[in-house]
Each structure stands twice: as structure tokens, then as C-alpha cells.
Design goal:
Blueprint (H helix, E strand, L loop, with lengths): L1 H6 L3 H16 L10 E3 L3 E9 L2 E8 L5 E6 L6 E7 L1 H8 L9 E7 L9 E11 L4 E9 L1 H5 L4 E4 L1 E7 L15 H8 L1
Parallel strand pairs: 5-9
Antiparallel strand pairs: 1-2, 2-3, 3-4, 4-5, 6-7, 7-8, 8-10
Length: 189
């Protein structure tokens, strides 16, 4: 028995590998999408999908409340799309006094948002949570795939797409809407 095992010691791993390859070929292939988040005491960073093969990095300065996003170009190697949301407006969305030392959390999630204007939204939103106010606000990137593929630089403002208190039960009826511009007005109508 020992002689048989020793003599066929390369056969068993080879058969195992062959069986794994056959099973892997029969199972459906599902793409994996990973996002990451990181933070320091006063700065947050997260990534989220914007298009099929492109993701954005979202940056939040907790001291000023400035929210920024940037997207790398496919061929240029630099950032071809940049977006910002001023800290004063972000603090107003949460009803915060800047001197109260806000405590933020930030994550991204996939969202298939529709817009009636020419540009649509990216495939993800960034969720900002502020602990002392007990609110969550979601912001989206206005995305134009045609301009991105044409390597045209893009810049603009992140658009608030929703707000919800998480500490108190939401009021009856629809959640309060925040934001301005065409996208916010269309959703409110």
C-alpha cells in the first residue's frame, strides 16, 4: 500500500486540480466588486463603482465638512473627473454647528438612480452618517459615460439624493428631501 501511494504521489494532486478546473468551468462566473473605506481621526476615504469598470474615490474632511470625489481616466493615468460638495452645505444638510465637532462615518453602496436630465448618476452613492445629529445623507455623482469614454474632463457638484434620521423613527409619509438643482426638483414632483 505504501509503495502504491509513493509511486502515485503526483497523480492525486493532478486529479484534484483537474476536478477543480472542471467544476469551476461548469459554475457560473460572477464578477466581484470590492469597495474599501479607511479613516483617520479627521479624514475619511471610501471607494465606490461609478460605471462598469470605473470607480471613484470619495474623501471627507471631518474638520471642514468638505466632500470630494475623483475618478481616474482609463488611459490618461490621471484624474479626469472631479466633484465637490462644500463643507458649509454638508453641515447644513445635517443641521450642524461647525463648532460642535461633528462625528462622521462614510460608506458607499450600489444604486441605480434615474435622472430626467441629460446626465445620469453613477452606479454608486456615498452615504454620510453624522452621529450627533442622528442623520444619514446620500450623495451621488452626476455621470456622463459618453464624455468619460471621449476622455473629456468632467467636474461638478455631488448631488444630495436623500436624507433620513436614523435615531428617531422616520415621520409618516415620504422621507424629507434635500438638495437642489434639476435632479432634486424632479424627484420632489
Amino acid at each position: 500500500m505504501r509503495y502504491v501511494l509513493f509511486r502515485n504521489r503526483f497523480l492525486f494532486p493532478a486529479l484534484t486540480l483537474l476536478l477543480g478546473l472542471c467544476l469551476g468551468g461548469m459554475l457560473p462566473h460572477a464578477p466581484l466588486h470590492a469597495v474599501s473605506t479607511d479613516r483617520t481621526e479627521s479624514f475619511l476615504a471610501a471607494t465606490g463603482m461609478v460605471d462598469e469598470s470605473v470607480e471613484a474615490i470619495y474623501l471627507l474632511d471631518c474638520l471642514t465638512g468638505d466632500l470630494r470625489a475623483a475618478v481616474l481616466g482609463k488611459t490618461s493615468g490621471g484624474f479626469t473627473a472631479t466633484y465637490a460638495y462644500p463643507g458649509g452645505k454638508l453641515l447644513q444638510d445635517f443641521g450642524l454647528d461647525p463648532s460642535k465637532n461633528p462625528k462622521f462615518l462614510m460608506v458607499t453602496g450600489l444604486a441605480d438612480l434615474r435622472s430626467g436630465s441629460q446626465s445620469t448618476f453613477g452606479a454608486s452613492v456615498v452615504y454620510i452618517v453624522e452621529l450627533s445629529s442622528g442623520r444619514i445623507c446620500a450623495y451621488a455623482i452626476p455621470w456622463n459615460r459618453t464624455r468619460f469614454v471621449a476622455r473629456a474632463p468632467m467636474s461638478g457638484a455631488l448631488i444630495p439624493v436623500g436624507m433620513l434620521p436614523f435615531r428617531n423613527p422616520p415621520p409618516s409619509g415620504p422621507a424629507p428631501k434635500i438638495g437642489g438643482g434639476k435632479a432634486g426638483k424632479e424627484k420632489a414632483e
